[in-house]
Design a protein that fits this description.
Helices cover 42% and strands 13% of the residues. The protein is of the alpha+beta class. It has one domain (3-180): NADH Oxidase, CATH 3.40.109. The chain has a four-stranded antiparallel beta sheet, with helices on both faces. α2 crosses α5. The longest helix is centred in the middle third of the chain and has 25 residues, at 117-141. The chain is globular and about 50 Å long. Bound molecules: flavin mononucleotide. Flavin mononucleotide is lined by residues 11-12, 14, 147-151, 189.
């Protein structure tokens, strides 16, 4: 697949077929992910692939909790909240055969001083985000859909995800990526602002 085809063909997919993904295919996604740049060459990321029914079900509940908190935080009216619940619990929004939870280990760092705590964390999260983008583009090539879930980072929910992943406290959640075969042909969302609008040449 041409790079442009993958870049322009990627869009957030939130509805998936009830079809499992072979382990080799899931591993191909991670192989693409780890070719991303990583600050100071640390590679302090950890990819936890949820694919068994029980942990998948528990993670789904945490995503649902996060989405509810998100909508409460933006004061979504009650009827819209009900619609979201219908989409999730009856139509299966975000229900995927696999989820990749991406963490970074805060204990593995290059600059050791406390004054660098924040910068090291940012660099690690940025590195994880680049890995996630690689994973998402590879997914397009493999006919898979993905969406970045950030709402699992609400306080308390992130801890639950970490515990579910069986990781110690030094692991910080960068994001959760549902992965599956799209239920409908993905239609990329248009951008509101052009490249010219957001660019300045000096
Ligand atoms: C850091 C980050 C967090 C996101 N969190 C969520 C989320 O929690 N739930 C969700 O449905 N989409 C989430 N998204 C997806 C965005 O809503 C989506 O990328 C955006 O609307 C642009 O659409 P596109 O991905 O189809 O181009 C997130 C995206 C990013 C980059």
């Amino acid at each position: 697949m041409e790079l442009d085809e993958a870049i322009n063909g990627r869009t957030s997919v939130r509805y998936f077929k009830d079809e499992s993904i072979p382990r080799d295919t899931l591993l191909e996604l991670i192989k693409a992910a780890i070719w991303a740049p990583t600050a100071s060459g640390l590679e302090n990321w950890r990819f936890i692939v949820f694919e068994s029914p029980e942990p998948v079900g528990k993670l789904y509940e945490l995503i649902a909790e996060g989405m509810m908190e998100y909508y409460r935080a933006v004061n979504l009216p009650a009827d819209k909240m009900e619609k979201l619940k219908t989409r999730m619990y009856e139509e299966g929004m975000y229900r995927a055969p696999a989820y990749v939870a991406v963490f970074i280990d805060r204990n593995v760092r290059f600059l050791k001083g406390r004054e660098y705590d924040e910068l090291e964390l940012l660099w690690s999260i940025e590195s994880a985000a680049m890995a996630i983008q690689n994973l998402m583009l590879k997914a397009v090539e493999l006919g898979l859909g993905t969406v970045y879930i950030g709402v699992t980072n609400f306080r308390g929910i992130d801890e639950e995800v970490r515990k579910l992943a069986g990781l110690k406290e030094s692991y910080y959640l960068a994001g959760v990526i549902p992965v599956g075969y799209p239920r409908a042909d993905p239609t990329p969302r248009k951008r509101r602002r052009s490249a010219e609008d957001v660019t300045e040449f000096l």
